[in-house]
Design a protein that fits this description.
Mean pLDDT: 83
Distance between the termini: 96 Å
Number of helices: 4
InterPro entries: HMA_dom (IPR006121), HMA_dom_sf (IPR036163)
Protein name: HMA domain-containing protein
Pfam families: HMA
Shape: flat
Organism: Saponaria officinalis
Helix content: 25-40%
Keywords: Metal-binding
């Protein structure tokens, strides 16, 4: 086996080795119910920060929001947060200006933080659509009361 054979051997060896895909840097926002005290916040922080790849964990007790940043997957973060025996879900709220109809059924939530509504698909019935466009400024046939 000469130099050429050695080079081919190493070339084949490099091709065969699998390269691991690097995880992307993510920000995962969670809604965790019943964060009542600093002890609850510390318990959640400890459970999530134990995951591999977590860079920071921020707990906002007022809005019941947990923000996790790092090289993590949302499913693993949710599973780790659920070990605290609290109800956990992905952050469902967006600013009401980003939703076309923020007060349709399912979007308006009384427990939502100020200026936020649930992100829902815009599925209006034809009757609802008719009522919303009836008084629209964009509709030239709209009713205008002066």
């Amino acid at each position: 086996m000469g130099v050429e054979g050695t080079l081919e051997y190493f070339s084949d060896l490099i091709k065969k080795t699998k390269r691991k895909k690097r995880k992307q840097f993510n920000t995962v926002n969670l809604k965790v119910t019943r964060i009542d005290c600093e002890g609850c916040a510390l318990k959640i922080k400890k459970a999530i920060s134990g995951l591999k790849g977590v860079k920071s964990v921020d707990v906002d007790m007022k809005t019941q929001k947990v923000t996790v940043t790092g090289f993590v997957e949302p499913k693993k973060v949710i599973a780790a947060a659920e070990t605290t025996k609290k109800k956990v879900e992905l952050w469902p709220y967006v600013p009401y200006t980003m939703v076309a109809h923020p007060y349709i059924a399912g979007a308006y939530d009384k427990k939502a933080p100020p200026n936020l509504v649930r992100k829902v698909d815009d599925r209006m019935t034809p009757l609802e659509e008719q009522y919303t466009t009836m008084f629209s400024d964009e509709n030239p046939d709209a009713c205008s009361i002066m």
